[in-house]
Write a structure and sequence with these properties.
It is built from three helices and six strands, in the order βααβαββββ. With 119 residues, the chain is of the alpha+beta class. The chain has one domain: Alpha-Beta Barrel (ADP-ribosylation fold).
Amino acid sequence: MLDRGFVFKICSRQAWDAALAEGVYAGSSDDRRDGFIHLSQAAQLQGTAAKHFLGQTDLLLVTFAAADLDGALRWEPSRGGALFPHLYGTLDPKLARAVRPLQLDGAGVPIVPAEPDPC
């Protein structure tokens, strides 16, 4: 189900701290390579965490309101044909609605809340 209310970014604490200091988040190396910032809907987060962040520590889950990103946000097919939110541009860290640390489970997969609270 497509939920355009909130979108989420998993990133390292170091990257987010740099974004706060610089006033802009330009994305990960994968984001910059692909030409957009990869975001996820709530229902996509666990798959994203397992596929792209396995074994990575000191991660954050950052929540944004999709409406705050509307001009540059596109919903495009990705993993399994599902529509994923892709941001063509940079993120203003002041738009973050919530920032939460993620812990790893015993297999090294970041533990994402089943229904992340947007605010």
